[in-house]
């Protein structure tokens, strides 16, 4: 079973993604901010991480920087899912090592297809 970590502080997004990915046979882990995500990653090696940028505690950019420093997570795919839509935000996310940069609002169905295309 593929594993996915969803990191977002918006409960509605987390609930809809959790439901959809479980329905698509993923084991789902949830974090409400970057700090919580990094704690989960100490014990879990997901295939994909869906990561918001704007979150309390540790933002998505800083979280991704920490993920990229961990050799255990080098094969993990990271998708930014965010409302930050300026060109410089997108460039920053991709330059930090994100595999995809998806803007909110988004299609859950399309996101599932994008995740499956990465793994």
UniProtKB/TrEMBL annotation:
Superkingdom of origin: Bacteria
The species this protein was found in: Flavobacterium xylosi
Record's keyword annotation contains Coiled coil: no
4-aspartylphosphate modified-residue sites: 52
Domain Response regulatory: 3-119
One Pfam family linked to the record: Response_reg
Keyword Repressor annotated: no
SMART domains the UniProt entry points to: REC (SM00448)
SUPFAM superfamilies membership: CheY-like
Name of the protein in question: Response regulator transcription factor
InterPro entries, alphabetized: Bact_response_regulator, CheY-like_superfamily, Sig_transdc_resp-reg_receiver
Keyword terms, alphabetized: Phosphoprotein
